[in-house]
Amino acid sequence: MADPLSADALVAALREEGVTLVEHRGWRTHNRNGAGPWGPVHGVMIHHTATSGTESSVELCYDGRSDLPGPLCHGVIAKDGTVHLVGHGRANHAGKGDGDVLAAVIAERALPADNEADTDGNTRFYGFECVNLGDNRDPWPAAQVEAIVRASAAICRAHGWGKAGDTSVIGHLEWQPGKIDPRGPGIGMEDVRSRVAERLRHPAGWSREAPPSGQDKEGEDPMPKWSLLSTTDYARTVRPGEWTTLNFNRAHEGGAWVSRDPQPSILVGPAYYTASVGVRVRGLAAGQEFQIRLAEYRERDDGGYERTGSLPISSPVHDAGEGHFSHTWTGFLSGSRKGRLRVEVLSNGEGEATVDWARAETLYWPA
What we know:
globular, Lysozyme-like, 2 domains, alpha+beta, 6-stranded mixed sheet
């Protein structure tokens, strides 16, 4: 349980975490406190605006709509990573959600499925709206996702949240049944929580000492590291409805391809990355959906690995026969418990499909 931060304390926390701020007109006294309480607060909620354009999105979130008065959040996060503060106090962003989810947030334990709408979230959560169409095609730039992480970490740090876990930051889709936000290429709440947890292990100035964008203290841009993995003489059967991990048995090193033992991991954390994966699939039926995702794993106490999350899924549909599919993701892979990144595929048809070639190219910045 915590009282909300004052406007001055919120600004100080965000700036200390390295967030670029714009203070919108009158935001410090702009709220819906007359409609109900704000606080005690327990976490941060992330949304997408379902709009495009920074200025119009900020104005919408400040003013609200005819059926929903503003502010619609406390801050609007633009695609360039700038956070526009539009309200301080109760805001119309969360609506009613699942009380079991709130209990999990308070206890900092794994989130249950949201299947009820019995608890007022506007009282309990800080809210950030992020400029994105939410159509699952509009991409989330790395700068915008990093701003989400920094802003969330700033609030968690100020309140002392995140000591027992990293579930103080949730998406609207994890709170209210039927909601889908945030979604789209480059955003995933498991990834956001992992990065917030990593930041909270360091002082607030950590990002300025080793920023994920690759910019160093002198303002120079060091080159990222590069990894290129592929397969040869390879066939991986993909059974309907089962996520199947791909293994890579070639690596490009020293200007040439070299063989290696087949391995599923394409990256070991901690690192910020952009990864592009391509696969060739045979045996698809007309209209059959084939899904590709990047999945995060960590080591268990017994030495095995367990999946801890995944990035947004690419779901192409092919006419029939052979398909070449590719997708690109941006994210952060925690180094906690030997974090690993793997490529997984799934076929939604009735029959088996076969992946006979795959390639994973990754640019990454060790954190």
